[in-house]
Structures are given as structure tokens and as C-alpha cells.
Write a structure and sequence with these properties.
Aminopeptidase, 39% helix, globular, alpha+beta, 6 helices, 193 residues
């Protein structure tokens, strides 16, 4: 009985230390200063299907190559079930979707979720092609990172196409490092130093 109690005690202490370190990092490490052009009209809002669903689907269709790696991916299924994909049922309802809108238009969106206790994933970051170069991608990404940290993510990952050099530049500028790459994708991570 003493061996079992000792093992449980060690496990609880390890989890407490890890959680405390993550919380301390979130509260005491300064956020990088965003170099984003401020636009009073552009607001990050919660996804609302009646307002945003078709706009996001249209944006995804225009940018399919950059956003999707699987030919059978369903943007509709992702949005309707707030799930990364139909292949990951354990994450149903876990996907958080935020939109950047002005008075009338969708300017961009991001979608992210918790992979596990300490890790988050940014699944999508897309900005309408007519709105690029205004800092909206960075604004959305910083929002997603902040929200994932609030949820307890200690490590955050994302993937992008090897030929998406503008996205790679953004990710590196805000603290992501390249972890690996293959012929099609670069895998980035961001974790505290």
C-alpha cells in the first residue's frame, strides 16, 4: 500500500509542478508587442453560424491549397461540429473558431483547439486576399495564441505549406520555430524558453 501511495503522490506532485510552471509562464512572461495596424472597424468575434458559415466556406474554397491537405476534407462538417476533421471524433466540439469582421465583411478567421492537457494547435489562419498586408493575420494569430495559453497550452503547434513563405515569416516573427518539414508541409511549434 505504501508503494501505491508513493506513486500517486509523485504523480500528483509532477502534475502540480507542470501546471504551476504553465500558469507562472502565462502570468509572468510578457507578451510580445504586436506590430499590427489598428483598425477600429475590424473586430475579432465568436463564430456565429448564421452570420459567418458561408463566408468562411467561401474563404476556404478560395484558399483550399493553402489551408487543406486532404482532398476529402469538409469545411461544412468542421464548422457544423466544431471539430478539426471527421477523422478526429474525440475533438468534437473542441474547435474554437474566431472571425475578424468589419461592419459587413469577413476579413479573416482562425480555428484552434487543445490537443491535450498542455498542447494546443492552430488549425486554420486565413485572411481574405483583398485584406492582406494590413496585419489582420498577425492579429488573429496573436488572439489564438493568447486564448490557447489561457486554456493552459504550454506548447502550441501548427503546419503550413513549404511554399507559403509569407505565413512562415509571420510565424517566425511571433516566436514559432520550425520543428520539422517534409515535401509539402513545415511543422512549427511555439513553446516557452
Amino acid at each position: 500500500m505504501n508503494v501505491g501511495f508513493s506513486t500517486i503522490k509523485t504523480l500528483v506532485m509532477g502534475v502540480s509542478i507542470a501546471l504551476g510552471g504553465g500558469i507562472a509562464y502565462f502570468y509572468f512572461c510578457p507578451e510580445p508587442v504586436a506590430q499590427v495596424q489598428e483598425d477600429a472597424q475590424a473586430q475579432i468575434l465568436e463564430y456565429e453560424p448564421a452570420r459567418d458559415r458561408q463566408d468562411i466556406i467561401n474563404l476556404m474554397k478560395k484558399n483550399w491549397y493553402w489551408l487543406i491537405s486532404s482532398p476529402d476534407y469538409s469545411a461544412e462538417y468542421m464548422l457544423d461540429n466544431q471539430i478539426p476533421s471527421h477523422r478526429e471524433p474525440r475533438y468534437k466540439g473542441a474547435l474554437r473558431i474566431k472571425v475578424l469582421r468589419d461592419d459587413k465583411n469577413l476579413l479573416g478567421f482562425t480555428a484552434y483547439y487543445k490537443l491535450n492537457f498542455y498542447e494546443g494547435r492552430v488549425l486554420f489562419l486565413a485572411v481574405d486576399e483583398t485584406q492582406r498586408g494590413k496585419g489582420y493575420g498577425e492579429k488573429l494569430m496573436r488572439h489564438a495564441l493568447s486564448e490557447l495559453k489561457k486554456l493552459g497550452s504550454y506548447k502550441i503547434c501548427l503546419d503550413t505549406r513549404v511554399d507559403n513563405l509569407k505565413a512562415q515569416s509571420l510565424y517566425k516573427r511571433i516566436g514559432f520555430i520550425e520543428e520539422s518539414r517534409d515535401d509539402a508541409f513545415v511543422h512549427f511549434i511555439q513553446k516557452p524558453e
